[in-house]
Each structure stands twice: as C-alpha cells, then as structure tokens.
Amino acid sequence: MSQFWDERFAEPGFKYGLQANAFLRQQASAWPAGRVLLPGDGEGRNSVWLAEQGHPVLAVDSSAVGLAKAAELAAQRGVSARWTGEQADLADWAPPPAAFDAVVLVYVHLPSALRTDLHRRLVAGLRPGGRLLIEAFHPAQLGHTSGGPRDADMLVTLAALRADFAGLLTEQLGEEAEVLLDEGPGHQGPACVTRYVGVRP
Which of these, 65, 68, 70, lies nearest to 38 by C-alpha position? Predict the structure, then answer.
C-alpha cells in the first residue's frame, strides 16, 4: 500500500490540494489548543493547517513521499516547530496511551478487517475529554466519480462507525451527507460522505 501512495504523491502538485478539509475546518476552528494525531494524513494539508491554528501535531502515514511533501509544506508555512511526521503502517501502529487531545481521520481508507481494530487503538490514544473526528466515503460514493476507493469494503456507514466506537466514545455528531468536494485534482464534485465526532469520557 505504501508503494501505491508513494507513486500517487510523487506526481506534481498536491493530489488533494493545499486547503484543509472543509468539515475539519468547520469543527476544529473552536478547538482549544492541544496535541492532535492525524493518521493517514498524506501530503499534510490537514496537519499543517492544524499546526497553523496553534496545535502541536503528529502526522502518521505509510508514504515517505507524502510525509516529505508535508514536512516541506510545514516549513513553507512556518510551523515546523509544531509539526512532526512519522512513517508507519496503520495496520499495526498504535499511539501512546492517552497522549492526544484529538484524533483526525480524513479519508483514511481501510478494509473493514483492519478498521475497527485501528479505531479502538486510536481511542486509547485519546486523553479523557479528547475528541475523534472522521470524514470518510459512504458506500453510496460508488455512484460518484469524485474520488475514493472503488472497493465497497473500504467505504463506511454511520452505523459501522457507531459500532466501532460503542462504549468508547460519546457521540457529538453523526451524519451521512451529500457534499460538493473541491480538494485538489483527487476530490472534485458531488460526493456521499459519513461524518462522525465523538468524545472520550
């Protein structure tokens, strides 16, 4: 999988643009400063934006190419002191326990056999009161051409996310929505997404 993303991120420019995800910007604009973990952050648009808002961030990705572009973006925007990258395979990576105030997953595509286990490992990395935010493609995205995997097993419903976090997080927001994506050449046009925000008690 890292080779796939290395090849994609080696293309000129930024596959998913330079602007942070709209749902993340909407939700995180009121977050108090705190340490944020971003698994699968790719070329860094979301982690660098959060660093610009004053959050110390850790971006974890399997792609060395994506992380290098993210580090360069952080340097260009003057936030290298708040931005850290780590190369790792999310299939077996776990954060330190209770180390983060927030976890952000934006279009992190995983097969269902890995997803639930990773989600629960990520919750363990949250401090009490910490929040987890997800925007993912819904199975109905298969009817759109605006991005995302063509494998239904990597798409997720709100019911599946609620099951993943049952007994672990208190849901603050959950929705399945039609949105219009404008995120670089990789995400353009109408899309069907699943959004979730939960807080660790």
Answer: 70
